[in-house]
Structures are given as structure tokens and as C-alpha cells.
Amino acid sequence: METGKKKPGRKQGNRSGRQQAKNTGSNNQAANQATGNPDNVPVTRKRGRPAGSKNKTVRKDHNINANSGNGDNAHMIKYAMAFSELPAIDVNNPVQVKQRVIDMFNINAAFDIKPSVASLAMAFHVDRVTLFNWLTGKTETVKNKESFNAIKNAYSQINLLYETYMNTGKINPIAAIFLMKNNMGYKDTTDYIITANQDNNIGLTDIVNRSGLLTDE
Predict the structure, then answer these.
(1) In sequence order, what are the residues at sequence separation of 6 or more whose Cβ sits closer than 8 angstroms to the Cβ of residue 212?
(2) How far apart are CA 125 and CA 138, in angstroms?
């Protein structure tokens, strides 16, 4: 058995380790020079995002360009915002009311969206129920007759448009029926009115005889 023989591979392993450290030092020195690190502070690489991942940083800029969206939702939102941007008016001033009705139809035409009772109400910055109260006289907000007629005429025009949409197949029939029942007072039911007999002198015998429950048998 041979003794004093050095183990193979130790010297070669040490040489490889020293060479790797030398290469690492060269890489660090090059990195320090590239990044302007005069003190040769060891550069530690941080773990980055996986390859192919997208930057998910949330923008905090609230100055969003209103023309950036071209989808249906963006189109509808801009349509609703157009009504919100209309200035308030005096509903008892017929000149302002007539112009507001024109503004409402112009907005719908510009966005190519069918006008509705909700859009008419929104043009005056009220809800649909308040608009109905104006038209039915439940509230006396609109006291000027000319202003009242202008609003009522716009309501009737929307009614006419929805009947035209249905007759020409420009709107879903189910949606049209729902809207016209809720907004225009349309009904497709038959009401039966039953009143009691006004003859108060009728007796029990007469009731039984009329019912045909008794027979001669």
C-alpha cells in the first residue's frame, strides 16, 4: 500500500476556485467602472421580474385623456358625461327650456344613441320620477305653461321615436315593451270591473232560487 500520495483533484480544484474568484473580481471591477463606483463597493444584483412579465405599476396620473378610449363602454361614459357638463337652467324660462330640449336631442344624435326619458330628465339634472311629477302636475316646479309644453312635447317626441323604432325593427321588441310600459304608460292587459248588485231587498230564498241549487225532485 502506497503512503504519502496526494489526493488527486485537490490542486486542480483549488486552481479552479481561485480562477473563479479572479473572474468574479474582474466582473465586479468592470461593473464598478460602468456604474461610476469609485470605492469598488461589491455590486449585488437584485432579483428582477421573470422574463416575459409585464410592468404592473399603477399609474397615479389622474389627468386621463378623454379621447384615449374607443370602446363601447368609453363611448357610453362620454355620452353620460355630456349631460353632466350641461349648465343648470331656469325651468320656468321657456327660452332656456326649449334650448335644453334641443341640446338633449343634439347630444343623442352626436353619439348616435337613441333618446330616452332618462336622457330627457338628465338634461334638466333631475331623475325620471321628478320628470314624471312635472308632467303629471304632482309638483308645481314648472309653473310656466310654455316651459311645461316644451318638456311635454319632447316627452311625446321620444314616445313617437320608440313606436317608430318598433315598427321599423330598430330596437329589441322586449326592451321596447318594457321601456314603453314603464315610461309611456302602455298596457297590454284587460281590466274587469265587477260591481255588487244594488238590489238590497233580495232575500236568501231569492238567492237560492237564482242559483239553481234547488230542484223539484
Answers:
(1) none
(2) 18
